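Support request, priority: normal
Reporter: lab tech (M.K.)
Component: structure prediction queue

Hi team, I submitted a job for Amidohydrolase family protein from Nocardia panacis yesterday, and the status page still shows it as pending. I've pasted the exact input below so you can check whether something in the sequence is tripping the parser. The sequence length should be 410 residues. Please let me know if I need to resubmit or if it's stuck on your end.
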Amino acid sequence: MTDEQTSTLITNARVLDVPRGEYLDGARILVVGDTIAEVGPEVRALSESAILDVEGRTVLPGLIDGHVHATACTADLPAQAQWSPTYVAARSARILREMLGRGFTTVRDMAGAEYGLADAVDEGYFPGPRVLFGGKALSQTGGHGDMRHRGQLVADTHPHCPDAGVVVDGVDQMRRACREILRTGAHHLKLMLSGGVASPTDRVDSTQLSLDEIRAAVEEAEAANRYVAGHAYTARAINRGLECGVRTIEHGNLLDETSIELFKRHSAFYVPTLVTYRMLADEGLAYDLPADNHRKVADVLDHGLRALELAHRAGVDIVLGTDLLGGMHRHQALEFAIRAEVQPAIDIIRSATTVAARMVELEGRIGVVAPGAYADLLVVDGDPLADVTVLAHPERYLKMVLKAGVRYFQ
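Reply from support: The job had stalled in the queue. We restarted it manually and it finished. Here are the results:
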């Protein structure tokens, strides 16, 4: 062990083995630096190890949220595009700190966050989950990432303006934009494949981007050993993306059996975001969602659980996502309770751990309590396998968060 590394032995733990869906009672976890070194009943401390007795509580892997907008400080995204970038960064720091406090130790940002925010967390300037960023989402003119109101003729193309999207039209513009985003170290690219709720001028049921534009983005991502995520609601938009090689579909509330077949054929991941529609319906207006956008929530709200159930029964790889905006971020953990209406507890937990880790290509490093993984650990009261809503109420049940071996909120 180097001088810089610390060591902690966690004792008297009820460790959730997520892949097996079983508990290991009376377990010990040796953490060296930022990594789990050993797990088992007979693990011994090193000479300099601190001892942490969790008194029989459940220990499970840090959670992964597969769809966040860490920089979405308001539900009025067109208005935020005019804000100061430093002001947005300061507010984003609070959003990320609160995500960590709910037990999310890794998040995949799906438009808005860039390398500066991710680096600031990694370098310890403020606490937060590990941020896997994709920069700005790529949108056609008038698409879901085009936040201009109807009378605004020119888009702001500055790379650091606090806008979640960049407008591209045509294959050449798409390739260049993808390369610029990948140049910053992005973990993925995001395409707006259909209309959405938060954008001002498009219909939810529209399809967006040409097939050639979608294929160009997939080619650029694959050339950089990255992948493409696609925002899509209708089966038509979903299927176009999957057939072109898009690896993850976000939202997907209006998918159908034809979509399920394509998910399975292409080994694609499905990332529903159910909590955001409930909160937009209930609180969106209070958090500055424009009335025209609020009216679009009904188009997708009632279909989300049906889509989730259809995908679950078919064995599609499903990942937990939330997609909350502004003051509604505080409801992040309620996604567990909503999904419990359809899925068994262990499948919901896997969607926020092992399946999500495969999706972001960090299998074995996050989402498990096992040697070689980052020491991202939660200590909770209660039994999440018996009642997954334990995870929906971190203010009551979450007792400690470790991210990369560092303790928070104990």
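The longest strand covers residues 7-17. Residues 63-359 form a domain with the TIM Barrel fold (CATH 3.20.20.140). Let us know if anything else looks off. Ticket resolved.
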